[in-house]
Design a protein that fits this description.
alpha+beta
Length: 126
């Protein structure tokens, strides 16, 4: 014996679904249909942001748009991060150069003092 079944459901709103089904077999065929409706209030439904209340299908499109926007924002932030990293590297190189120049300046001051002392000892200065 063989059989096959097929069904379809359609949401007309977030709270209402219509469904129809059929099964075909060797000896028995059946059909079903129905409506599913949500009744009552729900705190969870009230907590759903307005942009998602259009239903499950439209919510998918809203979410796709939001994901696309977040990916673009993430790409911009990654670019900024790379730029900041480059600036940080430049600052580290500049600080190293400043430290080197400070060392050279100290050496220069010491040499000036030594030259002045030698000139004084040689009697070349007042």
């Amino acid at each position: 014996e063989t059989a096959a079944a097929l069904g379809v459901a359609h949401y007309t709103a977030e709270d209402t679904m219509f469904h129809v089904g059929v099964s075909v077999g060797s000896h028995h065929n059946m059909v079903n249909a129905g409506v599913t409706r949500k009744f009552g209030t729900s705190d969870a439904k009230k907590a759903v942001p307005e942009r998602y209340k259009g239903g499950p299908i439209s919510s998918i499109y809203v979410l796709q748009d939001e994901v696309t926007a977040l990916k673009a924002e993430n790409a911009r932030m990654q670019e900024s991060l790379h730029e900041l990293s480059a600036v940080k590297d430049d600052n580290a190189r500049m600080q190293q150069r400043i430290d080197e120049l400070s060392s050279v300046k100290e050496d220069n001051e010491q040499m000036k003092a030594q030259i002045a002392l030698l000139m004084q000892q040689a009697g070349l200065t007042k």
